[in-house]
Amino acid sequence: MFTKDALHFFGSKTKLATAAGVRLPSIYKWGELVPEARARRLQIASDGKLEYDPKIYDLHGRAKRVEELNHENQSSD
């Protein structure tokens, strides 16, 4: 679940934080994806209109690892 989609659905960061069961400052740390445990909660809070899809998290994790590997393998010249 993308953070921007959840934010759009709930309309404000305050409402999103309340629905997710977290304090407002936590929202600012989420990044591109809602943390998985919160995504499940938001799916319920949105009556299924927002959907937790584990495949998105798997793909995102793989992309980050590839990015990190590419960064580590770059020369420092």
UniProtKB/TrEMBL annotation:
InterPro entries: Lambda_DNA-bd_dom_sf. Pfam families: P22_Cro. It comes from the Bacteria. This is Cro/CI family transcriptional regulator. The lineage of its organism: Bacteria, Pseudomonadati, Pseudomonadota, Gammaproteobacteria, Enterobacterales.
